[in-house]
Amino acid sequence: MRTILILLLGLLVAACAVQYRWYKEGAAKAEVDAAREECRTESRSYGFLDFPQRSTRVPTARGERYSSMTVTTATREADIFNDCMRAKGFVLVPEKK
Question: Cα separations (Å) of 77 from 7, 43, 70, 81?
């Protein structure tokens, strides 16, 4: 019963979460998609430069598994992606419901 309540609470929180999108006045969907793809490619190519690839233990419900991407690397890639989008004139805005 407790598990069901926790799952329902998680679904409720997820349903109420605000979604964001990249916006630039006058930009068509194709331009937004192209900018996202360019920035995604750029972030993946620079994301590993500052941090060596190494195996990291990641705790899971069944013990530990190994991942070659550290949290720091993922954060760095996200920062590069966001900086790239902003440099192209985009801003993050809440989705309209």
Answer: 30, 5, 11, 6
